Write the structure tokens for this entry.
Amino acid sequence: MRYTTAIFDLDGTITDSGQGIMNAIRYAVKKHALPEISEETLRSFIGPPLKEQFQSVFGLSENKGADMVATYREYYSDKGIFENRVYDGVPEMLEGLKTAGIRILMATSKPEKYAKQIAGYFGFDKYFDFIGGACMDGRRTDKYEVIEYVLKSCSVVRETAVMIGDRSHDVTGAKKAGLNSIGVLYGYGCKEELEKAGAGELAALPSDVVEIVLGKEICRKGDVTF
């Protein structure tokens, strides 16, 4: 067994959450009378901390970015949270890791309250020993901060753990925390983004994650085909 602890991102790694997030972004943009944005730009909001992404895309102040997040939550907490689905193969992935004795944790930039609600609603909370996320008041939104929170809360030995996510900030957050990482290619990131960020290995499918975590020789970084 290569690792004993697997730490998962949520959006784009466990669930395809794009529809709900993008609908909530559209709602906030319209309510604040900001310019409409393209589908590609909308997709850029899936994964990164929202306040910083609003600031970056629209050139907003920190206070205005926080206002956008509050408006976003008006839609997301009621409707968007359920405009979501678990990726095909993910339940089998989690079951395979759990059966093999791997400790499964979550580190997401999504507010912890929402992450727990989603995990319970879709029934995959039973696989997770700990679900860690951002605070509703805007604290602990950076991925590195969330990862550190999870590591310390669960007394994780870093050499035995791996971070699994679909975006560059999952990889850079893991690297800063002293963890290896697996970039998944079925989410919202791409091979180029994950390789540039320094992902140790790539997984084309959820089943490949199981093989890498358990130490089987498939789907290494240079061997992924499409």
Observations:
- Residues 112 and 133 are 4 Å apart (CA to CA).
- Confidence is low (pLDDT under 50) at residues 218-226.
